[in-house]
Fold this sequence. Notes:
The chain is of the alpha+beta class. It is built from three helices and four strands, in the order βαβαβαβ. Strands 2-3-1-4 form a four-stranded antiparallel sheet, covered by helices on one side. The chain has a single domain (2-46, 57-118), classed as Alpha-Beta Plaits. The mean pLDDT is 83.
Amino acid sequence: MYMICFVLHDAGRLDDVIAAWQALGVSGITISESTGAYRRQVRHVPARYAFGQPRLTSTEQFSYTLVTIVPDRQAVQDCVAAVERVVGNLDEPNTGVLAAWELDIVRGVPPTLRRPEAAE
Length: 120
C-alpha cells in the first residue's frame, strides 16, 4: 500500500481533485486546510511591530492538503495523472506538491484496500 500526500495550491480546484480521485475508486481522503511557512511570513508584519499574537489576515491564501492510502503503485500513478488533468503539470509553479511512499504497516483500512498477501 502507498500513502499519497497532495498539497493543492488553488483551493478552488479542491472539489475537482476529489471527484477525479473518487472516479478512480479512491476513498478515505483526509482534507486539511493548510498554509506554508513562506506564505505566512510574507503576509505578516514583523513580530516587533505586532501587538499580541500574529493572526492570519483576510488575504492569507490557504492550500488544501489531501492524504489518502491506495493499494499499489499503479493507483499512485493514476492519482498523479488525475491531479495533473485538473491542475496542470505539477512541475509548473502554483499547482501543488505531491509525494507518495510505500507503507510497511497499515491498520484500520477496509479489507478491500489491502494487498491479497496481507489478507487474513
